[in-house]
Amino acid sequence: MEIVLLKLLLAHVLGDFFLQPNSWVAEKEKKKLKSDKLYLHIAIHILLIFLIFLSLNSWKIALVVGLFHGIIDVIKLLFQKEKTKRIWFFVDQFLHIVVIVSCWNYFYQPAISLNFLENAQFWLFLLGALFLISPAAIFIRVIIAKWIPSKASSSLQDAGKFIGILERLLIYLFVCTHHFEAVGFLLAAKSIFRFGDLKEAHDIKLTEYVLIGTLLSFGIALIVAMTVMNINL
């Protein structure tokens, strides 16, 4: 990745997260186009590019990125509702990144290589990751379905599902990058947070159910990761 793209991304991170207080965000959402903070925020993004590049020759890309940043922010402010704030946050960030990458490509015309798409190992790694996200969850659910506790759960909706996906992907990443010690740390951390609550609940069946699900999740992730690592294509 070229240093120019890294500098543009750095300017974005600084401007959108470090140099934009929550009070500014609240004022923009309240006053929208009438908010002074909106235009100050755009100006900061433009100024950051100048400062990071330390060159006046970057004025074209600074103005273009700043202009599109403002347009995207305005669209977000005008169309987002209280219930859609989370969605618009990710849409907003995605569009900012698209603009940055597009400007980098247009103004600097870097040599972008997609040779990794011809690498069979890349597709194998992707296949393993996708398997751990959904099929593995379905297999685990089918296996332990007959042991589902009758007691109603007070946990967050789909929390267990997402915890399982994250833990399998983390194990997959740790093993594929040869950080096996991190797998033990992850298991210990989950044991502290999860089984501490189960102990307080005094429910043996629920504890066993969670333990079976956890061991299955960890086991499948380890098997998939080890398989991917030992297949030479």
From TrEMBL:
Keywords: Membrane, Transmembrane, Transmembrane helix. It comes from the Bacteria. Coiled coil: none annotated. Pfam families: DUF3307 (PF11750). The chain crosses the membrane at residues 38-55, 61-79, 86-108, 120-148, 169-189, 209-231. InterPro entries: Phage_phiKZ_Orf197 (IPR021737). This is DUF3307 domain-containing protein. It comes from Pedobacter planticolens.
